[in-house]
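Case study.
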Amino acid sequence: MLELEHLSRRFGDKTAVADASLTIAHGEMVGIIGRSGAGKSTLLRLINRLIEPSAGRILSDGRDVTGLRGAELRAWRARTAMIFQQFNLVNRLDVLTNVLCGRLNQMPTTRVLFKIFTPAERALAIRALDRLGLADVAMNRADALSGGQQQRVAIARALMQEPSVMLADEPIASLDPINAKVVMDALLDINQRDGITVLTNLHTLDTARTYCRRIIGMAAGRVVFDGKPEELTESVLHTIYGDAGDGAVLDERMTSTSLPMGIIPAMAR
Amino acid sequence: MIPQDPTNDPAYRLFVQRFGSLRRARIAETWLTIAVLALLFLISAVATDFSPEQIARGIPRIGEYFGKLLSIEPKRGAPSVPVLAWDHLFGGVKEPQSVAYWFYRIDVYTKLLWQTVQMAIIATVMGFTAAFVLCFPATGTLLPLRPVVFLVRRVLEILRTIPQVVLAFIFVWPFGIGPLAGILAIGIHTTGALGKLFTELNENADLRAVEGIRSVGGSWLAQMRYGVMPQVLPGFLSYGLLRFEINVRSSTIIGFVGAGGIGSELKRVIGFNIYEEVSAICILILLVVVALDLTSERIRHRFIGNTV
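After joint prediction, the assembly is written out as follows.
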């Protein structure tokens, strides 16, 4: 169980996350929605401890992880795998090595420095890549792949970490609808088959509705909604997305990029 | 952890079957490179008598020179090795081991040092400008005209391969003894050296920005100016300032062959075995280089944040 207690983060005089309290059970798949700048990315980075909180605590199964340092901190990061909007792969390394990077936390320094991976580690990496349909491109350079493929490599890297939580920060925001569906299906599969908790920031409401049984809405750094997709009424959406002040009206036909379930049966795994 | 041996996984077996040889080839390539470099090192070490024993034997003796300096009895009249002594430090011009004795010609040194720095400034600006112009047509990723790239690259190579001292000798003939020969020699070498470094920076520039400028109908020059220059200019400046520091030292050395500046004076005092003056000049050169290093760091930091 992951608990956030009154978590806050300020950048200068700007508050990115304000007093966020959440409890997330093992194996949940949670979608976080909100406008750009609502604090969604900061929240995920706080959980992974890429950013230090200004106030509040993070508890994992009752253990306070807010103050972890050094090796313990790195181990916590390995347990909470991040997936980024811009993939954050190492372009000049091949796909296989990128995926093997998911193991760096558990490897002794000499093997890290001399890039020595065991056959078992390579086999696990290939298995992860194969699961995402990418075993064929294992020896290609990461930047030779398409965006959708790169994001799946990033997910394979996250799988190599054998995490208990996956934090996906706008994983499909730079992808076309078909690739977006492939990536979201992969996350759902990881959640259901491996029982890994998935927290994902999403720009598109219908994606959140389709994939997540629990949705958290953020506005101006605060958690303003926490419930089931069915409870996302017009007025709730107005609280989350607000009035832009520029007369823009929320219209899902414009924001939607996801395809209805089952439109590409070949992709459904 | 997954219980069974993951290497028995069919996907991994397929991977080994398909890519195993490719992977082994890449590893072999790495080892071959390491082996070739190690061999080159060994050959060079043998050829130049670069032996570990000799280094090991020499290391304990490194302090000897300085020990000698300190152990000399302070006495009236010039000691064989120049030292500054505390009890004579603020003595007059006639008193050996005093600051005034060492630096009694400070006015001449300052003028000559300033001339040396000026030589370096002119040579660096000249070389920087020429290298800046030449580096774009020397970058294959930016200019798809192979013969031009080939030609410009060879020109840059020739410019930096001729030793500066040789160039200075050549230029002393037509331009006479004085700073001009030195400036030209250093400027030409700077063009070749900076040209290569600039070209490498250009090669690493992100081509997406260039594509962006091409997409709006920009000419090749516009692509270089707006797509490449903003990315590479901070690097150019960094290398340019580093080169300036190197050029200050170079213009000192080049003075030895009659090309003006503090170098000519240094050669003279070395020739006459006036060790106090040799030490004084060396200290002054060191101070100038440190001062330049500090200034160039400030310039660079100020520059990096700005748009170009």
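Observations recorded in class. Chain B has a mean pLDDT of 85. The radius of gyration of chain B is 28 Å. We will return to this complex in the next lecture.
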